[in-house]
Design goal:
about 350 residues, Neuraminidase, five-stranded mixed sheet, 25 strands, globular, KIB1-4_b-propeller, KIB1-4 beta-propeller domain-containing protein
Length: about 350
C-alpha cells in the first residue's frame, strides 16, 4: 500500500507543470518526441530545467495563451480547445471548418468579460468528382481543393456554440499576412504589404469586428539593406507599452542572429519611435512560433537591456547597449528534430 502511494505521488509530480517554483519571468517550454509526449520546462533565471510528461500536452500544438490558459490543437486535426494547466479545466471551442489556421490569439482568460478567441484561417473546399467529360485527368489532383481568402473566426469561449465569421479582405490585400499580438486585451496586427498598424475589437453581441487604423507607417528598419533574412515581433511591455522588435540574421545562409532594433508605439503621435535602451526589462521571443513576452528584470537573475531569443534548441542573449550576443544550449537532452518552443508565464501555486 505504501509503495502504491509513493508511485502515485511520483507520477502526479511528473505529469504536472513545475508551478510550485516561484519566479516572475517566463518559462521556456520545449515539447519534443514523435508525438510531443515529452516536455521540458527551463527556468532562465534559475538555470535549471524540469522534465515532464503531461498527458494533456501529448499530441498537441500550443496555439496561444493567456495567463495559465492555453489554446491547444490536435496534431492530427483542427480540433481546438482551452486548457488550464493549473486546474486541468477544459473549455471546448466550436468546430472550425476544414482549413489552415494562420493565426490564433486569446485576449484574456475565459473568466474575464473581455475574453475573445480569434482565429485567422484559410478555408479549404473539396470539389466533388462529378465525372465531367471535359475534366482533365492530369489536373484532377490539383483541382480537388480550392483555397478561399483569409477569414476571421471568433467567439467567447464557453458561451458560443458556433463561431462568428468575418471576411478578412478589409485587412489583407492579395492574401498578405501580418504580425499579431494582444495589447490591453485587444488584437493588433501590423500588415506586411500596406504597413498599417490596426486594432481589432470583436463584438460578440453583434458578431462583428471593428477595425481601427492606428498608423500608416511601419518602423524604419533600413539599417542593413544587404541582409535578406529578418523576423518581426510585436509585444506588450510590462509597463503597458506596445513594442516592435526587428531581428536581423547574418552568416552562412543567413542563419545566425546578428542585430536587433526595438521600437515603441507613440499613440499620441501615431508613429513608431526607435528605442536605444529598454531599461530594466527583458524581451523573450521565439522564432518558431513568432511570439514572445516581456518581464521586468528587477529581483531576478535576468540581464537587463537584453533580448532572449530561441532558434532551434539554442538560447541567444542579446544586449541592446553593447550589441553583444551570447549562445548556450540549455537542455541538450531535447531532440534535434524540430522541438516546439514557447515562452510561457507560468503562475505560482500560491496564486491560485
Amino acid at each position: 500500500m505504501e509503495l502504491e502511494e509513493f508511485k502515485k505521488e511520483k507520477y502526479a509530480e511528473s505529469d504536472r507543470p513545475p508551478f510550485s517554483i516561484q519566479q516572475q519571468d517566463p518559462w521556456l517550454v520545449m515539447c519534443d518526441g514523435d508525438v510531443r509526449q515529452k516536455q521540458t520546462f527551463f527556468s532562465v533565471s534559475h538555470n535549471q530545467y524540469y522534465t515532464r510528461r503531461i498527458p494533456e500536452l501529448k499530441e498537441k500544438i500550443i496555439r496561444a495563451n493567456a495567463d495559465e490558459w492555453l489554446v491547444l490543437q490536435s496534431i492530427y486535426s483542427i480540433d481546438c480547445y482551452l486548457w488550464n494547466l493549473i486546474s486541468n479545466d477544459k473549455i471546448q471551442l466550436p468546430p472550425l471548418p476544414e482549413c489552415t489556421i494562420l493565426e490564433c490569439l486569446l485576449s484574456a482568460p475565459p473568466n474575464d468579460p473581455e475574453c475573445h478567441i480569434l482565429f485567422l484561417i484559410e478555408e479549404t473546399e473539396t470539389i466533388p468528382d462529378d465525372d465531367d467529360e471535359n475534366s482533365n485527368d492530369e489536373t484532377d489532383d490539383e483541382n480537388d481543393q480550392d483555397v478561399n481568402p483569409p477569414t476571421f473566426y471568433f467567439c467567447k469561449p464557453g458561451y458560443n456554440e458556433e463561431f462568428h465569421k468575418q471576411d478578412g479582405h478589409s485587412i489583407f490585400e492579395n492574401g498578405s499576412g501580418g504580425i499579431w499580438t494582444v495589447f490591453k486585451k485587444k488584437f493588433y496586427v501590423s500588415t506586411f504589404q500596406t504597413r498599417r498598424l490596426l486594432c481589432l475589437e470583436p463584438d460578440n453581441d453583434s458578431g462583428t469586428i471593428t477595425i481601427t487604423p492606428m498608423s500608416n507607417e511601419s518602423p524604419d528598419v533600413r539599417k542593413y539593406l544587404d541582409m535578406g533574412r529578418f523576423a518581426n515581433f510585436i509585444l506588450q511591455s510590462c509597463d503597458d507599452t506596445l513594442l516592435y522588435v526587428h531581428m536581423f540574421f547574418n552568416g552562412k545562409n543567413h542563419g545566425i542572429p546578428y542585430d536587433f532594433l526595438v521600437f515603441r508605439f507613440d499613440f499620441a503621435r501615431k508613429r513608431w519611435i526607435e528605442m536605444e535602451s529598454i531599461g530594466e526589462i527583458a524581451i523573450f521571443i521565439s522564432y518558431y512560433m513568432r511570439t514572445g513576452t516581456i518581464c521586468s528584470t528587477r529581483g531576478t537573475n535576468l540581464n537587463k537591456e537584453s533580448i532572449y531569443f530561441i532558434e532551434g534548441r539554442y538560447l541567444y542573449v542579446y544586449n541592446l547597449i553593447t550589441h553583444s550576443i551570447s549562445l548556450s544550449l540549455p537542455c541538450p537532452h531535447v531532440s534535434k528534430k524540430n522541438p516546439s518552443m514557447h515562452w510561457l508565464p507560468l503562475p505560482c501555486q500560491n496564486k491560485q
